[in-house]
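Homework-ish question, so no full write-ups if that breaks the rules, but can someone show me the predicted structure for this set?
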Amino acid sequence: MNIPTITGADFEPLLPAGILMLGAIVLILSEVYQRASEGARGYQAIIGFVFSVIAGIVALYTALEPSRTVFQGFGVMDPFSGAVTVTICVGLALSVLVAAGFLRHRNAERGEFYALMLFAGAGMSLLSLSNEFITLFINLEAMSVATYALTAYLRRGTRPSEAGFKYFILGAFSAAVLLYGAALLYGATGTTKISELTARLPAALQTNPALVYLGAGLIAVGFAFKVAAVPFHMWTPDVYEGAPTPVTALMSAGVKAAAFAAFVRAFLPFAGNLSADPQQHAHIMTTGFAVLALLTMLIGNLLAIPQRNVKRMLAYSSIAHAGYLLLGVAALFAKPVAGVTGVLAASPLIANANPEAMARQETLKGILFYLLAYTITSLGAFGTLAALERREDEPRGTAWDLDRFSGLGQRRPGWAIAMAAMMLSLGGIPPTVGFMGKLLIFRSAVDAGLVGLAIVGVLSSAAGVYYYLRVVVYMYMRPSPEGALVPDRQWTTELALVLTTAAVILLGVMPGPLSQWLTRAGVIFGH
Amino acid sequence: MSFFDSQILHLTIFLPILFGVLVAFLPSQEKGQIRTVTFIAMLVDALVGLAAYLQYDPKGPEFQLENRLNWMPDFGISFHTGVDGLAVSLILLTVFLGPLVVLASWTFINERVKEFHLALLFLQTAMIGALASLDIIVFYLFFEAMLIPMYLLIGVWGSEERQMAAVKFFLYTLVGSLLMLIAILGVYFIAQPAGARSFDYATVFNSLLGAQKELSACMNTGGCDTAHLSPLAMALKVYGPWMFLAFAVAFAVKVPLFPVHTWLPDAHVQAPVAGSMILAGVMLKMGTFGFWRFAVPLFPVHAREFRVAIAILGVIGIVYGALMCLAQRDVKKLIAYSSVSHLGYCMLGMFAFTAEGATGSAYQMLNHGVSTGALFLLFGMLYERRHTRLIADYGGIARVMPLFAAFFVIVTFSSIAVPGTNGFIGEFLVLLGTFKSSLKIGIGVFAATGVILGAAYMLWLVQRVFFGEVTLRENQRLFDLNFREVATTVPFLILILVMGLRPQMFLDYLNPASDRFVARALYGSNEANVTLDQVQMKVMPLAQVATAEQEEGQPPPRLQMGAQLPVLKKPAIVQPFHAEPFPAAAALKAQ
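A: Not a homework solution, just the prediction itself:
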């Protein structure tokens, strides 16, 4: 039996995940030395925050190294996974900060909560660098199991247990679908390694196209569940509403980023090889992604409009934002060169040497930028929400009502400014980072000839502005209700709000450095 | 060039927001201090803006006071600013209104004073920035950024129905401008080869020129043989109309042109005095300015295709706005509908595509800012005393407030274009240009009826509000204008008379701009022979350093102003004592 040689270099990409796991172990051990009933636990959040930040910095350093495979091709080390890990660590650090104040208010601060968060983060980081379907599945589960537990963490009420159970059942189901798809794809191509698919797909498409498409379709469905794309979005509002708000923030930011990273990595081999299909079914996949993006953008935004519950509204808005990201993914598949009938068919662009690779890199940059922008913005929005809600109202579901925001501009001006910045950024209004993200995504979509889809995208985002602005209306243009409480201040939450607000505005005004860095990070191994 | 001279446009743009940072740190209860600091900020900005206006040489090249900073080089976006004659005139109008707006709300706004003034300062920066930007994305950013403070001005400090009006204003403008964003991306991709794309206005414009010529030659011959068109001309032929329409809708909402004007009466009526003044004074001009700067020059062939339609919509706006004015019982709504009518003249003059029409349109933009701004200001003073907007609640005001009545009547004369006031020059030039143009004569005739209707509704308003007996007891105890209010109004009156009696001072700035506008609008058509140097756009050459260095894997320098500062390799101590004390300056001189 051959024992594969594994060197220290193989562990390099695992470093951020390793640091996160180490932090989680430290947190669990800290609980051993802590008396259950008493004692301040504020340091636990700081431990979680520090480890997330260190992991993020390490990922930042390793991100721009040349890409290579590790562990016999089961994992990769490429700038793309590095950038995604940075995004995940940013989301993780911020949601730990939000969680600290949130849990203290409920007397529910425990080391294992932060430990679960960091474990989930490690799973996300590993998911972003998985290059083989079984590894990918295991990491997906590592991430998901931690999030299931986190969802039901405040287990006293009915809502958290309902949310946790729903998330678990549907998550398990979707993972099974994904695994089945991977099995079919293995049957067609004889490999589970993603980077080997590129070489084997042409032959497989010649002999057994149906199996390839069925497998790819099932994998896509599995991912669509994870990223909450319509029509696989049904679980999202209930789970997002029922989960503790910091966990919702982590789900909407980190889980989504990691799932999108794996999604893109798994499907990129198809983008270059569909022309090898003798029956020219290539358009099925392009159309599939386009339809998925269209439905997700439209339905996410339309369903968010009637919501008076801000947490549910943000849940639907996160569906809509998954739609914009899917628009970017669809742009990866629509080829800008030959055979397109879009605007660009007649443009001088054809003269360029390798426009396809360039357009792909630009699109990947757009997706990465949008993921980071959405992570920061949604963390800020959920952070304000977490700061505002009170435990007593949760069973009745009024903790997140729009009325809670009435007159916030006078009661807590700082929070209102933060929330207003987040709402404008989610709506894509300059000068916020959300606008820059949308600009990059729509730019790629127009470049790929998906003009119609881009128009639907901007119009649905205008519909989105309607419900985001409603929050601003309540904060600034409605008087505070009689006897409205001024909520407690928690320095951790406020730190998170300051950081996110500063990032949203600074990155909106000065996106240059980030965008340049992401241009170099938009490289996936093998492409 | 001194620092001040070279950075004068940046200063004009960013001074308000820099002062805004100062205001943000003042305690909220110190209302007087906040007002004073904001007023000083606006005043300083007005002086800097005036200096920029005077520094602009109307006989010189088209774009002056240029500056280019690298912003997102990998994306082809630079913070490129510069002004032509129209833009610098509109900037002058903006900075002129700035301090007066602060004065006008001195006693009117008593709640959330700090936030109010922050919004004003932010808005000022966004408006000047939009007028001064020479990069399409930078323009778009400022154009959208204007929405937020104006939305807050209407929604927080407005009247009863303010929330509805604010949201309506926001969404109308946003839907239009989002479509424009797609069109901007479209033109960015089709016009330029991959790898060297840029959102720079002049670059995009010049890259379209050849195809425009080709396309119009093919249109002029009647039947268009598409087989011989270049790929770019072909793409323009197919997608150009849609892109033009996307631009046109975005700006038409802002103007507002007839069918999409419905947000304006609500916004004006609900907005506080300051909001109405800025909205009428500057923000509506963003629409006409957008047509002038972007929609028409980028797509002249398609602008000519839709020319008659837009001119007719303009005329409908003129007549319909005037008729609506006759039917109003609410003073603010009446002034708002008169804006629709006045802006109709701007659109008509512009789409006449004659030098007179374009100049008149540009002059009318300035006029409307002054006269309607003054009308809203004056009515705001009355509203502050009586808190009613209904015409029926007034009557005989001239007896109790004679000075106020005199001011109002002078501004009314300006608004209805009585000779000797600024309004006359603008409307006269617009009508002259329309009759001289190739548009059907009926369009001009209908537009001319608007002048009569305008006199009718404004004079009727003055009669009902100011003359006759004082019928209501509440009106008998009104006190006349105080010093602050007089000081706020007098600049407007001076400007009305100066612009009416010495128009040449301003027309000198507008004439070259309108010649170039007409030349670009008619580029390649049968109607006029235009010289290429009028059409082509010459701006500072784009620094290629950024793209070249990026390929070597080094981050490009962020700051890029003409020459690059050389990096000092050796420590300064090693150099002999008598060497040039500032090597960087020497290197600059050498370049």
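Now go work out the reasoning yourself. Hint: The CA atoms of residues 341 and 449 of chain A lie 8 Å apart.
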